[in-house]
Specification:
globular, about 525 residues, mainly alpha, Sodium/glucose cotransporter
Length: about 525
């Protein structure tokens, strides 16, 4: 990456940001005494911090760096991953949030133990641990290290990744999920301000002349739905694969769901999820479009992932550059702290606590802190390896396409249909992932050439078939109470008038989503 420069005012702004983040983390450390505080914030979170934290934690692993780079390389269709979050979060609010909160679970795999058995829980826990460390945390650390090496050319990728991981681990281990969530609120605000600034200045750099963007873009680069033969994101992949990846990410991934599990009420959890869906809609405008505008502003870049840092260096004056870089770091840190805390929760609550029931909540809390530091080192070691992939976004989505479809099928059907038992659940996971290995090997050997979104859709469909056949063929199974959704669960706990009813809010969110997609169809 070209060397980017910072002035004293930029470092001052960045220093203020880090000082506030550490102050929040270590202030909340005084209220973090045991595992429940460390991993679930004492179940005291309101809807506003939940919504901002969901947005900030998600946005750092696939936006700014990854989305701007993908938009620069092949177009705005990459935004399909962003707006799709809104309808998925509506499903989450209606279907799975009441099952999770009424079960008082501490981790998402714990729901699978209540619905099926401990074997299914352990299987999914291991899968989620691997995904959180190898895909989510390592991918985010790579993005952050890439930026740091641009500003500090003497820094290598491993050192940059380790530095970011150490900072996030420090306040996460001290303040737990509460520190993660409340620093995420700050990070989300800075992130939105920074992204809006870059978008405005990028548009100003081309004299607010959209025709210049149209002239510079390649054919199809400004379209959301691309031909079936498109190598980047075919329209069929948007319809059958992107929702599968999104359902796993928003509804079953521990590092996202964890802040919902810490909600003080079902109403707060639902409103927080819908707020996150609302915040995802402008991403197309303020984080994807600048990547396309960069074609008309910047000289050709060797790698798409360099676009956003290069826009910062090219467009922003001293001081403001530091603010936007702080926003970029905020985006990265909000995901790193979330995944480290989630991975620690999985190890502590799904493996150590069941095998060592004599441990006290305070002892489990200290074990969780140690796990955070362990995963910090592991993910920082993996991060530099991502440099060999086509790009950050490609790395993240391709890995998930082979891992998550059987899980998405199990959660979706298992939460709606009582018939499948533990045997059917294990058959779905093992059979689905066995087929994943076959498809992955076939793609690598050139025997099959399927886009990863089509792979995700195909694996999801076959996993549904396995679960249905195994469920119908199995012996009678009666799941635990309140582990299968009923229509009564869709109603608010207390009657809410007009706009306060989450169902009305969900309907408005759906209309806004349709309007956005229609505008860029």
């Amino acid at each position: 990456m070209q060397q980017l420069t910072l002035a004293g005012a930029d470092f001052f702004v960045i220093g203020i940001y880090f000082a506030i983040v550490f102050a929040i983390g270590f202030y909340l450390a005084r209220r973090t005494h045991d595992a429940d505080d460390l991993f679930l914030a004492g179940r005291r979170l309101g809807w506003l911090p939940i919504g901002f934290s969901l947005f900030a934690s998600n946005i750092s692993s696939t936006t700014l760096i990854g989305l701007a780079g993908a938009a620069y390389t092949w177009g705005i269709a990459v935004a399909n991953y962003e707006w799709m979050a809104a309808p998925i979060l509506i499903v989450f609010a209606i279907l799975l949030i009441p099952l999770y909160l009424r079960g008082r679970i501490g981790t998402v795999p714990e729901y699978l133990e209540r619905r099926f058995d401990r074997r299914v829980r352990r299987y999914f826990s291991v899968l989620t641990l691997v995904s959180n460390i190898v895909v989510d945390t390592a991918g985010t650390l790579f993005a952050g290290a890439l930026v740091l090496t641009g500003f500090f050319p003497g820094l290598d990728l491993f050192s940059g990744a380790l530095l970011l991981a150490a900072i996030a681990a420090a306040y996460t281990a001290a303040g737990g999920l509460a520190a993660v969530v409340y620093t995420d609120v700050l990070q989300a605000v800075i992130l939105l301000i920074g992204a809006c600034l870059v978008t405005f200045l990028a548009f100003a750099a081309i004299d607010f002349d959209w025709s210049r963007v149209v002239a510079a873009a390649e054919p199809g680069q400004l379209e959301l739905f691309l031909p079936l033969t498109d190598p980047n994101l075919p329209w069929l992949g948007t319809l059958v694969g992107v929702p599968v990846l999104g359902f796993y990410f928003w509804c079953t991934n521990q590092f996202i769901v964890q802040r919902v599990l810490g909600a003080r009420s079902l109403a707060d959890a639902r409103r927080g999820a819908l707020l996150a869906g609302l915040l995802k809609l402008p991403v197309l405008l303020i984080m994807v479009l600048p990547g396309v505008m960069a074609i008309a502003i910047l000289p050709p870049l060797a790698q798409g992932d360099q676009v956003f840092p290069a826009l910062i260096s090219e467009l922003l004056p001293t001081g403001i550059r530091g603010l936007v870089l702080a926003a970029l770091v905020a985006a990265l840190m909000s995901s790193i702290d979330s995944t480290l805390n989630a991975a620690s929760a999985l190890l502590t609550l799904d493996f150590i606590k069941p095998s060592r029931p004599e441990l006290t909540p305070r002892q489990l809390g200290w074990i969780g802190r140690g796990a955070i530091l362990l995963f910090m080192l592991l993910s920082a070691s993996i991060a530099p390896l991502i440099d060999s992939f086509q790009g950050l976004f490609h790395y993240l989505q391709t890995a998930l396409a082979y891992l998550v479809p059987p899980v998405a099928a199990l959660f979706l059907v298992g939460s709606l249909w009582r018939r499948p038992g533990p045997g059917a659940a294990l058959a779905t996971l093992i059979g689905g992932h066995g087929l994943s290995l076959v498809l992955f090997a076939s793609n690598q050997l050139g025997l099959l050439n399927l886009h990863f979104t089509l792979v995700a859709g195909l694996l999801f469909g076959i996993s549904l078939l396995i679960l249905t056949v195994a469920g119908l063929g199995g012996s009678g199974w009666e799941p635990a109470p309140r582990t299968v959704w009923t229509r009564a669960m869709a109603r608010p706990e207390e009657p809410q008038p007009g706009w306060r009813d989450y169902r009305v809010q969900a309907f408005v969110l759906l209309l806004l989503t349709v309007a956005l997609v229609w505008s860029f169809r």
